[in-house]
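Hey, I'm writing a tutorial for new members on how sequence and structure tokens pair up, and I'd like a real worked example in the thread rather than a made-up one. If someone can provide the structure for the chain below, I'll link this post from the tutorial.
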Amino acid sequence: MKTILIIGIGAGDPDYLTVQAVKALNRADVFFLMDKGAAKAKLRALREEICRRHIAPGHPHRFVEAPSPPRDTRPSDYRASVDELNAAKQAVFEQMIADMKDGETAGILVWGDPMLYDSTIRNLEAISATGNGQIALEVIPGITAIQALAARHGIPLNRIAEPVLVTTGRRLADGLPNGVDSAVVLLDGEDTYRRFAGANMEIYWGAYLGTPDEILIAGKLDEVVDEIHRRRSEARREHGWIMDTYLIRRA
């Protein structure tokens, strides 16, 4: 039997790890890493820093790295492209697992929490369902970008007795559903918040949360929309990638 630990490592700050996550790091014999290229080398460096800081000296462990399958950023069929990407990732993980020794434990470090807009759980469950080698899966929760965003801005996420929608930029483009005044938005590659200018909205925006590159902007949307767009564009050019999250709601 081989054990796979899917470990939520928080939104970027090594201090965001839970005690449970630290214990999980110290159980692992091997860590699986997906290399996403030079542009995202900082993400690899943060994972390594987390391991240096939280794995006990002398605990034997190794890293196994494989190229992350390429993703179509503008697919004609979004669902089909996600299925293709996950199938490619499953093949990579399957090979990594096959190379493990029986009885070993592997750790997969997932940004934020594995339950939120991440396919690692689905991919490993799909591998487990094939029966190609017995594996036991364990999921360790982590601090999400949503929690980090609210904490860094010093705000409660919800208003009293009101719901909060968690969605993507792709879905926000359709507008807020009836009865929903607040939405937390992830995976917005199109600056969808700009469509709400003039609609009496407020926004709490953050990029690279928990990292030295963190950017925070908040206020009435009409007053900060251009600044967010400018800072976001500059940061993406500088780093080659961006991870941002925001809370948008009716003022």
